[in-house]
Write a structure and sequence with these properties.
Rossmann fold; alpha/beta
């Protein structure tokens, strides 16, 4: 599997809502005891093995709106079936503290996903949508997704991020259908996993 976490490179974007996908794959890498530090196809990536198969954790460096350029390069070079691509990204339609696994679907208003579906020519690939919608109203979507999480929102995002490595392992072991059944009913304000580790440095 090729797991793409979407976001924008640069420290100024690190803890913004739009970088939730980056934060998720970084935490997966931490749990899998690997590093996302190799450069290829305008992306940083790392790998881990499970049941003898190599899997990729990838952060496109193209900036969000051109995410499809990097995904397309990986797909073409590795001849990847679209069902072997998993995209992890922020979703403005889901509240903070929730997530949803889908087998396929439209890109909605998400510019990174629009870029990927256009470049791949299909929306038939699985994805994990992590909610970033807060309680406050916003009038400029672009400005909102590039804003930092509030402290309490950040804690809810951390709870979701803590679960994502388990989601990934279940998907590899059980398949996406059973994984969807297991997790999609747990979408709102997930409780802290007892004994869950915090990501390095106390950040997501």
């Amino acid at each position: 599997m090729f797991f793409f976490g979407l976001g924008n490179p640069g420290d100024e974007y690190r803890q913004t809502r739009h970088n939730t996908g980056f934060l998720a794959v970084e935490y997966i890498a931490d749990k899998m005891k690997t590093d996302i530090n190799k450069l290829k196809f305008n992306s940083l990536y790392g790998t881990f093995k499970h049941k003898g198969e190599e899997h990729y954790l990838i952060k496109p460096l193209t900036y969000m709106n051109l995410s499809g350029d990097a995904v397309k390069k990986w797909s073409s070079s590795k001849k990847i079936d679209s069902k072997k691509i998993m995209v992890i990204y922020d979703d403005i339609d889901l509240p903070v503290g929730s997530f949803r696994i889908r087998k396929n679907g439209s890109a909605g208003t998400h510019k990174g996903m629009i870029s990927i579906t256009e470049k791949l020519g299909t929306n038939d690939f699985p994805r994990i949508r992590i909610g970033i919608k807060g309680d406050e109203k916003y009038y400029d979507l672009a400005k909102f997704v590039l804003s930092d999480f509030k402290k309490d929102e950040f804690e809810e995002i951390r709870k979701v991020i803590n679960i994502i490595p388990d989601v990934i392992m279940d998907m590899l072991n059980l398949g996406i259908e059973k994984t969807m059944t297991k997790y999609n009913k747990k979408t709102l304000l997930l409780p802290e996993k007892e004994g869950a580790d915090k990501p390095k440095g106390g950040e997501i």
